[in-house]
């Protein structure tokens, strides 16, 4: 029987497996007994399991594993039999009145019956059901869509290991000395990465092409947690001025190089310099948008030439890093602030350009920096959609209430026929849950469609952020919403109706007018008015701010203007060659009949060139005032070609004057910032750029938006020669005569007649570029138009319906009054006043709510204050008049009530 | 509540399982496992009860006053978690009545030669 001791390892192992088997059996049985009704098992679970375990031990001993299997099988059969038998027995023995609902089977039967009943009822009231289902579906669908996108963009964030430890050094770009100083002195940051993003010409393999290159320090790849698809990524050994290497982005490799793995090891040229291709990035890697200009086609190691190490003028490095374990953002900020004081002492000249407040580099998490770009619009949408859901809920609630009231006679009849209150409530709940279920189901379907549509439209240029999609949590969110609305909307009306059902089968005049129901209805009207007003004011504010943004004047006329982006550094290494190239190209353009005017510029507005504008500081020595500006070298005719209106003075001359004085055209806000008296024209000031020159303001031009319609900045234009010739990037703006299909071909020909080795240029319509910059706002406006329209219809329908219903309910009372000789006009007035009173009270609450809400909205509103008086006033007036109209129509109907008919009907 | 004045015949015919459980307790107090083993032994291994069957029976028998909890009276040393059950005087009467009824049935069956004696 029992194994004798000292028989070697075998019995020990057997004992072990036995113990495990017994433990599993115990777990199995303790789960199984949960099937027993609580009355049978409560307090005895342990005893039951103990007994089972004892029996299992016996069975194991006597018959082995087969015995245990037999025990399990018997247990399942026995417990199931007992579970059913005990319930039946309990029912037989209970001394209270029979309650069939308590049995599972009969409860199921009742539910099925009620479900069938609910389906029949809802099918009979098709108008009501369809309306409720549609409102819920759109409400839930839109909310789920927006929630999914918010979840993807704002909550989920960056796709990198330990993404919460990645910190971003904000405020655009930084100089090399800054990067080096931070690398050595900011100890709270474990690893620091510098990135220089720019466009270069790719040649050597296939046709020349302009590509976007990110030069990065090697830690870039480990911090963003990426891996090569082929070959390897950049490492420390690649920091070598002699042997340059490059990593291809997957899309470039798959497209241009035809996914040929033999490309690794070959040599391509970037701006003419040979680079060995050492690897291909894994597919799907999209670095955070803050770290590049647009997308990335090629990665190269960041190699700093000796002269760059002390250049504290040029900011072109984007910087991010990884926090030391346990370090905080505040800690990093402190160290960075101190380091800047150091730098200011070392480079007083350069840092003087930041003015009296000095340089400030805000530190934030990379995730935060990343989402901040998209946060405001996305959250605004989320707010709007939440409002919409709120009003959808209110409308559905009031529809349910009105519906339940309408069914009061039916309910009374059922009560009279012996339906229990419990049964009534559960029937009404079944109906509302069924409706919400269908609405929610359609809503989730809509959400799937909506998310993919929205992702397709918006997420195109959101690299680095996990692509939003409907996921389990969002479905849970939707399900929760459905259940909450179903039970919430069902329960209150159901409880109310149960009370209504207690009345007599045939209502008397008095009981219909006074009572909780009527008061509840008025309260609902008031609530709905309040909510609608809050929503409408919120929507109005957002609308106004968006339209304001869309009507911003970029400062030039983008229609009919085109930009040509060229990189000529390869074949034109020195200034003289570049000067000749641009002169010849402009001459060729001038000969082309379809081009009305053309000009060259280092960068063109709204074009992603990968080359950031240079910065300079203008100083008025006599008053000691200075301002940091964007410094744009352009050829004469640039402003004219873009139709940027000159306010004062004249256009720039072709080159800087020989006496070293640089002619400048300043934008209006730059001029008035330095010369508040408006006497900028003809004045001179010193320009801190390239060691410092003297500037002479020859013209003042309308404010000019270079990057987006939202951003304002100080800008001056300077002669293209020599400032635009320092680098190999040249962009040309053209204004054409009408639409021209053959323009691209003609331009290409013109360029290649000068330098056949140049890649095919990109030609972009400026109008399209400006449009593209508004894409987000447009989408937002589109989505808002949809939401606000839906909400407005719901709100108006709700007010009209509820008010009309309240009035209709008084029909009999009005009939009696008319019969007793009341003046119809006075009756109409009294009805109207009663309705308007609740509207006014509701609007009062609504205004309070809207003021509270506008505080929350203030960060999402552009261009206007969150308490914008025209919006508040306009929306309130609109609301008031609509509510009055909604009350007036039924009120008029009330005056034409036929007393005889109403009296005889009761 | 005392059951002694009740008529044991009210509970006839008995559920065979209840009868076997009561029967197993006639020779002394037992815990669940003991009852199952006793029934198995006395039936020659043909009746094997699952703990849940037994428990349901016991619940019923305790409710009707045929069996009582004996744990407080006779705790069996180290087996602290074992609950002992004891048949009540009323339970004994009911077993007796059921046994008599069954004996009567058996006698009838034997008389008509349905089963051999």
Structural account:
The complex is a heterodimer of chains A (906) and B (117). Chain A has 906 residues and is an alpha+beta fold. Chain A has four domains: 9-93, no CATH class; 163-370, no CATH class; 375-551 and 776-905, no CATH class; 569-757, no CATH class. In chain A, a hairpin with a 2-residue loop joins strand 6 (267-270) and strand 7. Mean pLDDT of chain A is 77; it is low at 1-11, 95-102, 459-466 and 501-516. Chain B has 117 residues and is mainly alpha-helical. Chain B has one domain: Winged helix-like DNA-binding domain superfamily/Winged helix DNA-binding domain (Arc Repressor Mutant, subunit A), CATH 1.10.10. Chain B contains four helices and three strands, in the order H-E-H-H-E-E-H. Chain B has a three-stranded antiparallel beta sheet. In chain B, helix 1 crosses helix 2. Chain B is globular, with a radius of gyration of 15 Å. The termini of chain B are far apart.
Q: What is this structure's SSE topology?
A:
The complex is a heterodimer of chains A (906) and B (117).
Chain A: H1 9-32, H2 38-41, H3 45-93, H4 104-124, H5 126-156, E1 166-174, H6 176-185, E2 189-203, E3 209-216, H7 219-223, E4 228-231, E5 245-248, H8 250-255, E6 267-270, E7 273-281, E8 298-301, E9 317-323, H9 329-346, H10 348-352, E10 363-365, H11 366-406, H12 408-416, H13 421-458, H14 472-500, H15 509-513, H16 516-550, E11 561-567, H17 575-591, E12 595-601, E13 614-620, E14 625-634, H18 638-641, E15 646-649, E16 661-667, H19 668-674, E17 684-688, E18 693-701, E19 715-719, H20 720-723, E20 729-736, H21 743-754, E21 762-765, H22 766-773, H23 775-809, H24 811-819, H25 824-857, H26 869-895, H27 899-905
Parallel strand pairs in A: 3-8, 5-7, 14-19, 16-18
Antiparallel strand pairs in A: 1-9, 1-10, 2-3, 2-6, 2-9, 4-7, 5-8, 6-7, 11-20, 11-21, 12-20, 13-14, 13-17, 15-18, 16-19, 17-18
Chain B: H1 16-24, E1 30-31, H2 32-42, H3 51-63, E2 67-69, E3 84-87, H4 89-111
Antiparallel strand pairs in B: 1-3, 2-3
């Amino acid at each position: 029987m029992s194994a004798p001791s000292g028989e070697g390892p075998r019995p020990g192992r057997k004992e072990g497996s036995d113990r495990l088997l017994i433990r599993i059996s115990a777990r199995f049985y303790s789960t199984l007994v949960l099937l027993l009704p609580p009355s049978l098992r409560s307090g005895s679970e342990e005893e039951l399991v103990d007994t089972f375990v004892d029996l299992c031990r016996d069975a194991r001993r006597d018959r082995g594993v087969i015995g245990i299997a037999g025990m399990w099988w018997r247990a399942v059969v026995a417990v199931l039999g007992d579970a059913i038998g005990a319930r039946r027995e309990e029912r037989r023995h209970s001394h209270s009145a029979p309650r069939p609902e308590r049995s599972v089977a009969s409860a199921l039967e009742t539910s099925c019956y009620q479900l069938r009943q609910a389906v029949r009822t809802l099918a009979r009231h098709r108008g009501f059901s369809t309306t409720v289902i549609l409102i819920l579906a759109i409400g839930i669908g839109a909310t789920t869509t927006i929630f999914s996108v918010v979840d993807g963009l704002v909550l989920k964030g960056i796709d990198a290991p330990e993404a919460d430890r990645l910190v971003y050094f904000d405020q655009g770009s930084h100089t090399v000395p800054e990067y080096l100083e931070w690398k050595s002195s900011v100890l709270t940051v474990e690893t620091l990465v510098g990135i220089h993003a720019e466009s270069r010409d790719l040649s050597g393999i296939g046709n020349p092409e302009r590509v976007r290159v990110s030069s990065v320090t090697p830690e870039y790849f480990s911090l963003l947690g990426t891996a090569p698809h082929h070959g390897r990524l950049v490492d420390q050994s690649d920091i070598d001025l002699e042997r340059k290497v490059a990593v291809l982005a997957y899309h470039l490799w798959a497209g241009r190089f035809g996914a040929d793995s033999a490309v690794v090891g070959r040599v391509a040229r970037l701006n003419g310099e040979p680079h060995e291709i050492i690897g291909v990035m894994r597919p799907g890697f999209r670095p955070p948008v803050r770290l590049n200009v647009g997308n990335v086609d090629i990665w190269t190691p960041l190699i700093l030439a000796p002269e760059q190490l002390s250049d504290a003028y040029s900011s072109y490095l984007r910087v991010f890093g990884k926090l030391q374990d346990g370090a905080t953002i505040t800690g990093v900020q402190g160290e960075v602030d101190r380091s800047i004081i150091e730098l200011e002492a070392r480079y007083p000249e350069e840092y003087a350009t930041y003015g009296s407040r000095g340089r400030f580099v805000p530190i934030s998490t990379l995730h935060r920096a990343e989402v901040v770009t998209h946060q405001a619009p996305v959250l605004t949408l989320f707010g709007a959609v939440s409002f919409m859901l709120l009003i959808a809920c209110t409308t559905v609630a009031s529809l349910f209430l009105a519906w339940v009231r309408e069914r009061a006679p039916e309910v009374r009849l059922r009560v009279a026929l012996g339906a229990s209150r419990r049964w009534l409530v559960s029937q009404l709940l079944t109906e509302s849950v069924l409706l919400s279920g269908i609405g929610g189901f359609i809503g989730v379907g809509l959400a799937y469609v909506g998310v993919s549509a929205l992702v397709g439209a918006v997420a195109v240029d959101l690299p680095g952020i996990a692509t939003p999609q409907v996921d389990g949590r969002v479905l849970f969110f939707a399900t929760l919403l459905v259940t909450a609305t179903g039970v919430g909307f069902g329960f209150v009306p159901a409880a109310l109706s149960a009370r209504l059902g207690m009345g007599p089968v045939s209502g008397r005049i008095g009981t219909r007018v006074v009572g909780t129901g009527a008061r509840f209805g008025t309260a609902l009207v008031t609530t709905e008015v309040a909510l609608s007003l809050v929503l409408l004011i919120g929507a109005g504010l957002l609308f106004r701010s968006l339209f304001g943004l869309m009507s911003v004047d970029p400062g030039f006329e983008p229609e009919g203007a085109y930009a040509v982006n060229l990189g000529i550094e390869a074949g034109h290494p020195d200034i003289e060659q570049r000067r000749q190239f641009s002169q010849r190209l402009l001459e060729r353009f001038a000969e082309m009949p379809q081009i009305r005017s053309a000009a060259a510029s280092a960068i063109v507005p709204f074009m992603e060139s990968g080359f950031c504008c240079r910065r300079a500081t203008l100083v008025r020595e006599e008053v000691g005032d200075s301002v940091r500006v964007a410094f744009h070298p352009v050829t004469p005719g640039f402003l004219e070609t873009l139709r940027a209106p000159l306010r004062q003075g004249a256009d720039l001359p072709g080159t800087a004057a020989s006496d070293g004085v640089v002619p400048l055209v300043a934008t209006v806000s730059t001029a008035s910032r330095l010369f508040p008296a408006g006497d900028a024209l003809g004045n001179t000031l010193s320009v801190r750029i390239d060691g410092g020159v003297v500037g002479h303001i020859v013209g003042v031009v309308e404010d000019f938006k270079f990057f987006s319609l939202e951003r304002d900045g100080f800008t001056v234009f300077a002669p293209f020669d020599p400032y635009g010739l320092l680098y190999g990037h040249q962009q040309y703006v053209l204004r054409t005569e009408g639409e021209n299909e053959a323009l691209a071909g003609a331009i290409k020909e013109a360029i290649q007649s000068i330098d056949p080795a140049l890649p095919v240029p990109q030609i972009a319509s400026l109008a399209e570029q400006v449009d593209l910059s508004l894409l987000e706002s447009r989408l937002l406006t589109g989505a808002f138009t949809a939401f606000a329209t839906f909400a407005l219809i719901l709100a108006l329908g709700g007010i009209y319906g509820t008010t009309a219903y309240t009035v209709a309910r008084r029909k009999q009372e009005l009939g009696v009054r008319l019969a007793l000789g009341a003046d119809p006009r006075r009756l109409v007035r009294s009805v109207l006043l009663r309705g308007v009173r609740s509207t006014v009270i509701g609007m009062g609450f609504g205004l309070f709510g809207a003021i509270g809400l506008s505080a929350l909205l203030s960060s999402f509103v552009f261009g206007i204050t969150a308490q914008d008086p025209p919006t508040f006033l306009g929306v309130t007036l609109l609301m008031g008049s609509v509510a009055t109209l909604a009350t007036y129509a039924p009120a008029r109907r009330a005056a034409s009530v036929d007393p005889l008919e109403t009296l005889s009907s009761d | 509540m005392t059951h002694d004045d009740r008529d044991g015949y009210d509970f006839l015919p008995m559920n065979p399982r209840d009868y076997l459980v009561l029967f197993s307790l006639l020779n002394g107090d037992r815990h669940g496992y003991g009852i199952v083993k006793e029934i198995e032994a006395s039936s020659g291994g043909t009746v094997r009860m699952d703990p849940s069957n037994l428990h349901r029976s016991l619940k019923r028998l305790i409710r009707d006053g045929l069996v009582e909890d004996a744990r407080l009276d006779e705790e069996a040393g180290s087996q602290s978690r074992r609950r002992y059950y004891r048949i009540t005087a009323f339970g004994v009467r009911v077993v007796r009545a059921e046994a008599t009824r069954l004996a009567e049935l058996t006698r009838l069956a034997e008389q008509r030669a349905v089963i051999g004696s």
